[in-house]
Fold:
Amino acid sequence: MSAIAIAALCRQLIAEAEAIIKYTEDIEATKAIEGGAAALFDELRLDELEHIQKLTLELTEALSTGEEETGGEE
Structure:
């Protein structure tokens, strides 16, 4: 995988992590409010976590493949 693609995966991981931080703050801010806002934010936060897991697997595969191609040298 190209360096550009690896960088794109890393940038997306950052964006997903920032989204989790935002949803966590939103959950805290809406806990005391009636309604399902906190539950909705929690569901959205879990979706972001799933995205992070998928991106991490893709990045791991990309880096492992690159390591095999270069003989594991840094």
